[in-house]
Amino acid sequence: MASPQLELTEFAPCFRSCQPRFDQEKDWMHRIFELRFQVYCQECGFLAPSDYQDGREIDKYDANAVHFCAFNARDELVGYVRLVRPVASEKFPFQMHCPSLLDGITLPEPSQCVEVSRLMVRQDYRRRRGDILAGVNMASASPDQEHEKRSTSPQILLSLYRQIYTFSRNAGIRYWYAAMEPSLALVLTRMNFGFRQIGPLIDYYGPVAPYLAAVHDTELGLGAANPALLAWMQTPEASCC
Question: What was the pLDDT predicted at 129?
Answer without folding.
Answer: 64
